[in-house]
Amino acid sequence: MLPWSQELERSAYALAGGRLQQLRAVHVASIDSTNSALLQAAQQGDIAPQVLWADVQTAGRGRMGRQWHSAQPLMTEQTGQTGQTAPAPQRSLTFSIGLPFAPQDWSGLSLVVGVAVAEVLGATVLLKWPNDICVREATGYAKLGGILLETQALPEAAATDLAASAGLHKGAARWLVIGLGLNLQGQPSGDLRAPATDLANSLGPSTAAALLADVPGLCARLVLAILQAVLRFERTGFAPFAPAFGQRDVLLGQRIATFHDGQMGQTGLALGAALNGSYRLRLDHGGEQAIHSAEISLRPYGAA
Description:
The protein is α+β, with helices and mostly antiparallel strands. It has helices at 4-16, 34-43, 109-121, 156-166, 199-202, 205-212, 215-236, 242-247, and strands at 24-31, 50-57, 76-78, 85-87, 91-101, 126-128, 132-137, 140-153, 174-185, 255-260, 263-273, 279-283, 288-291, 297-300.
């Protein structure tokens, strides 16, 4: 059997041919931030497609500058027979994908990544606009993980080469980093704005056991699903993905409120994602509003 990295590299090439021919996959024990590392790689001229998976992130980031720290594997629990402490399994899956990217329109990309992740994890996994992976609970929903997209400019020559070789749009070409963090067992520390959960306790025993038994395989499946989805998005935009997002939209049909900088704004009925990736809200006082900014959070009405 090939090592994880070689198997992933070979599968990516089979998926997209020359576009991912130079993809590199690396697994490290600990890093400050996988997203930061891939942004720094591009700044130093390394713009080959690449995947960076870390067991622990010490300075991970979430949306709007929030911190996200992966679960520490040395947490202890009491044993039933001796009363002594023993290591309790506590794991996260955190990785980033970097690649040159040139869509016609960037709107809705985080939703497409979410759809790809949810389809790998199973039918009970839901999505919250614009970047949360979650499951439904009696009191609302709990967060399994999140997505962080970051971009920066490509060198002029690289943008030109990408447009010429792939028939894409030079003006939109940028270096894209897609970060994903999932709670496998236990929950990470950080600035939590919603209840958190993990795969082990939220997906059902058989589904969770199958996923957790082969974390490298799960990582590879997620990477390949994301790559396949975003390369399609690059050609088509968000519209073809809108029905799949709608089927997993945890807020759809609920009364919700918008929040910006911790302050509640408007309230209304969640109508779902539009074909351009914005979120549609039927306001309480009448009319409809499209939410475009990822700086705005959407929460069930009355949530703190």
